[in-house]
Specification:
By secondary structure, the chain is of the alpha/beta class. The protein has 3 domains: 7-152, P-loop containing nucleotide triphosphate hydrolases (Rossmann fold); 262-473, P-loop containing nucleotide triphosphate hydrolases (Rossmann fold); 496-578. 49% of the residues lie in helices and 14% in strands. The chain contains 20 helices and 15 strands. It has a 6-stranded mixed beta sheet with strand order 11-12-13-9-14-15, sandwiched between helices. Strands 6, 7, 8 and 10 form a 4-stranded antiparallel beta sheet that branches. It has a 3-stranded parallel beta sheet with strand order 1-2-3, covered by helices on one side. The longest helix has 39 residues, at 496-534. The two termini are 45 Å apart.
Length: 579
Amino acid sequence: MAKDCRIGYLHQELLSFESGDSVIEVAMEAFAPALKLKEEIDQLLVDLEGNPDPQLISRLSDKQHLFEAMGGYNMETSVHEILGGLGFPEEVQKAPYHNLSGGWRMRVMLAKLLLTQPDVLLLDEPTNHLDLPSIEWLEGYLASFKGAYVIISHDRFILDRLVTSTLEVAHQRFHFYKGNYTFYLEEKEIREEQLKREYDNQQKMIKDTERFINRFRAKATKARQVQSKIKLLDKVERIGAPESEGSDVRIKFSPSVQPGKQILEIDIKGKRYGDKLIFTPCKASIVRGDKIAFIGANGMGKSTLLRMIGEIEPFDGQVSYGTNVQPSFFAQHQLESLTQTDTILQEMRGFVMKKGETYVRNILGGFLFSGDDVEKKISVLSGGEKSRVALAKTLMLEANFLLLDEPTNHLDIGSIEILIQALNGYEGTYVVVSHDRYFLGKVANKIWYIENHILKEYPGTYEEFEYHRKLKSGIPAAAPVQSVKTAEEPKEKHDYWADKEKRKKEKRVRNQFEKVEAEIMELEEKKEALMEKMSSPDMARDFEGLANIQKEVDAIDLRLEALNPEWEKLAEELEELEN
């Protein structure tokens, strides 16, 4: 390692750090050398007041230049910028550090680490305690980070968008892949297939050779050939049998009772925690087959709403459940309700009696508890293992409506894939809160989010919601994640003039597409405002006013009918040109 190489290490043990200082003061500790230099500068300024010594002036000038080079004059700006990016409002930055929860403490440690501007960052699960806006901010920060970093993460978006090399630890060995996570998966599959072929071929050769030796061992005429074959086998470097990792068990949970079409309606008059406003009046409904992802920053009220729906959180309003709805709730606090002295199998005793031990063992196998693992006591399990036990219990209840609060917390990538598979095969309805963007993209057909303390719904997938949100905000929409290999690949020869013409056409079509899309969005927003105006109490008796507004709405609908087919045609044309 180079002598001047500075390493910054983020690890979970940093949570044990204690301080009575404010959040901003703890973060400012990243500038310890600069702060010490500032004290020296301040002292020199005091000394110069009564003694304008040229040597003191020279020393002051040198120290001030060094202080500037260390970024001393931008310290507070940098601290506010990074703490703000990680989700700390101004008032929380001034709050005592020791008042923070574990998740917010880890954010302070991350901010402090980033402020030291190391040459190499070692990041152990940096997104574990972050919400979606903070994860996106960190992703942007790392994308522009000039140094190198090594990152351990179960966030597949991060691993695909930021990583250029992947190091896998499997079966006590390192396996290196020169590409992002998607490339690693593709290359690993190729590598494993190749290894299996090599193993099978070698096994066939060994069996053929052993058969020859056993057949001709007693024949004197074949003695030399037999000895040659024995020496050949001794020299063979045996290829280990391909080892499968994880579980191929496919698990399926079916509701025991089919509910009515309407799962529930919630009518919120308001919700507060003391002076803190969570919800203003709003309504929402869930119908059978809805797979809802509830997203947003921490503290917005996602978990609160799930508890309100589950009727375990009081609020001003009411929840009306439909016919035969059987809810089941999963939250992190349920890990604490597991009986620590029980084994995993004993924890499932109710299901064992109802379904039989073989069935329960198969389900636990799907959650990566196989063989003797089911005899482990709850007390010795990791956080992720306890999460898997609690999730298995929740899903095995055969409820037809699931409320899942952060089910991917503490889960590794393999366990998340199993949960995705289970939810995709689930025939019931659910609302899931998560910050895992890959997971959300795989399990949701509707999005819930909170805006201005009002619950809102987007009728589409997470990717569609993100595209819509970024388009509305004027942010360039991210391209779909693809396999990225670090080594240069041979470039195909293209006709220069044909490419140029294609680019011109693509630009022309894109401009038309964006123009039509902008007009559609403007009309839809105008229509929404008019509909809201029509439903206001002031308009209830203004029949002439209502008729005029209806004319405007009809005109907008007519224009939208003409624009929508044009938008679809341009979208198809643009997709063809981009491929």
